Amino acid sequence: MKKKTRSKKESFMSGVMTLMISQIIVKIFGLVYKIYLTNRPGFGDTGNAIYNSGYQIYALLLLLSSIGIPNAISKLVSEKTSLGDYKGAHKIFKISFMLLTVIGTIGSLILFFGADFIANTILQIPEAKLTLMCISPSIVLVAMSSVIRGYFNARSNMKATGDSQALEQILKTVFTVLAVEVVAHLTSNNVTLMAAGANFATTISVIGSFIYIYKFYKVRKKEIHQEIQTAETFEEEDTKGIISSIFKISIPISLTSIVSSVNKNIDSITVVRGLKKITTEAIAKEQYGILAGKVDTLVALPLSFTVAFATALVPGLSSAKAKNDNAAIEKRVKLSLLITILIGMPCAFGLCVFAKQILQLVFPNAAAGANILQYISFLVVFATLAQTVNGALQGLGDFKTPVIALIIGVIVKTILNVLIIPIQGIGIIGATLSSQICQFIAFFIGFIKLKKMTKIKFDFNKFAVKPVLASVIMSVISYGIYYLLDFVIPHKIAIIAGLLIAVIAYVVAVIALKVFSEEEIKDLPKGDKIHKALVKLKVYKEA
To answer: What are the two backbone dihedrals, phi and then psi, of residue 457, each rounded to the nearest 5 degrees?
Structure first.
């Protein structure tokens, strides 16, 4: 029994690590093409404004098209497979695939034929029309791909999701550079066509990713068929009943994602409008370009580390709940939230303390925006926590709280954006403050509900005091050493050295403060080996 329990722990955390690694690759390559676009002569912040405004509308329509079905598949299939009903699980997959193909096609058509209205009336950025048209075919392809990802996530096989997402981002980076360079050469740096070329690269990368993940499924189809033939359990459900179950779960889940996308579009709609009341249109677009193109990109990086927990918790907790395994639920929730805090907190401190240096390092030709990055940096803490809490709630069957919490946060953000961005002396900083308040509200409401559902008690010292203390120690040591090195070695090398020292100092501080219990360390991938090493270092006493 003990060996079986250990296997389950490793399966959950191994899946988390697979997704985490893929998301790191996604974010690194995403940062590469963002750096390229921002620093490329003729593109810069203005090109980012056109590119990102169009991309955010695409992201919103993509969510509307998929309506949360992939997460619903993950939950429903994990429940079926945990009880041995492989035939019922595959039937859910097939029906979902057909459903998403139809809905995704409708989404693509809406974006393509509605591009003119969206660009001119909603965004008030006419240049975005072509970018919307170029990216529109991606919606149906991503919708179909997401069904396959959800199916394999539920089967505790995160490789399909991880590899396909990583491949998509690598292709996107390569084709973005190629497309923009070709367009720039042919049009003498026409920023509108360059932005359209960048979004067309997304469509090409999505095609490549879909081909990969569909082949992934085809290779394993024989194995899946054998499981179905040998399954001892099968609960007969008609197509109408399955679709009803899918929508019952997917609509609340999708609303959370839709509201999250709306949250991004609030900035694209309100920031430029508000800033134009206190400055010129050119400066307003440039300020929004800094926020959407550079600052949001850097702030989103830490979320790549923690999104894995939100993804893995849905099928993981659904399976545990189906078996009434409360011990597994508590351990997975507590460990996921602890690691989320231990990732989000130092990232927030690092972005705040090294804001100017990070922008100089990453965007040397367009380093403006340090104050914006500093003001928004602690959004990372609330956003990562909200992400993990939402995954836990959805895995436990609560689909309403995440969307209600986020809707309240978005309403508050919208009001604040409208009221404070047009105030002289506040301007773009108002958008950073309202975003942080929005994410805090979303996290706080969800966390209170999660505690009520699970009855889990959280040690304030362990989950808050120690992570903050470790982050402060990291910041003081790393910035102090960077400051001294900046006098004797090249500036960029000093920045890199300071950031590397920050990582080392933080890890040492977390170990010294004994944030993890010995059992939690053993629950990590290779945890037994890590624990033995810490015992040798006399951090923990040998059992």
So the answer is: -100, 130
CB atoms within 10 A of CB 9: 19
The mean pLDDT of 78-99, rounded to a whole number, is 85
CA 247 to chain centre: 23
CB-side neighbour CA atoms (13 Å) of 139 = 29
The pair of three-digit structure tokens given for residue 542, joined into one six-digit string: 């040998």
Which of 315-329, 417-431, 469-483 is least confident? 315-329
The whole model's pTM is what? 0.75
The CA distances from residue 376 to 2, 201, 306, in Å, are 45, 30, 18
Query: What spatial distance separates the first Cα and last Cα of the chain, rounded to whole Å?
Result: 21
406 touches 259 (CB < 8 A): yes
Q: Which two tokens stand for residue 483?
A: 């400051």
What is the C-alpha to C-alpha distance for residues 91 and 87, in angstroms, rounded to an integer?
6
What is the CB neighbour count within 10 angstroms for residue 472?
15
Give me the residue spans of the domains in the chain: 11-458
Residues 6+ apart with CB under 8 A from 291: 267, 271, 369, 372, 428, 431, 432
Instruction: State pLDDT tens for residues 108-162.
Output: 998 899 888 888 888 778 888 888 898 889 889 988 998 998 888 888 787 888 8
The pLDDT tens digits of the residues spanning 306-340 come to: 877 777 777 778 777 777 778 888 888 888 899 89
Quote the tokens at residue 450: 């999660």
Write phi, then psi, for 276 (nearest 5 degrees): -65, -15
| The two structure tokens encoding residue 354 | 């090294």
Nearest to 97 by CA among 289, 208, 283, 239: 239
Nearest residue to 373 (alpha-carbon basis) of 304, 297, 487: 297
The amino acid occupying position 121 is: T
Three-state DSSP string of 89-111:
HHHHHHHHHHHHHHHHHHHHHHH
CA–CA distance, 421 with 141 (Å, rounded to integer)? 38
pLDDT tens readout for residues 207-225: 999 999 999 999 988 888 8
Helix (H/G/I), strand (E/B), else coil: 508:
helix
* Cα–Cα distance measured from residue 191 to residue 394, given in angstroms and rounded to the nearest whole number: 42
Question: Which of 281, 351, 312, 360 minimizes the C-alpha distance to 49?
Answer: 281
- Taking Cα atoms as reference points, which of 237, 211, 259, 218 lies closest to residue 68? 259
Distance of CA 93 to the CA centre of its chain: 24
1, pLDDT greater than 50: no
**Nearest-angstrom CA–CA distance, 268 and 146:** 26
Helix, strand, or coil here: 123?
A: coil
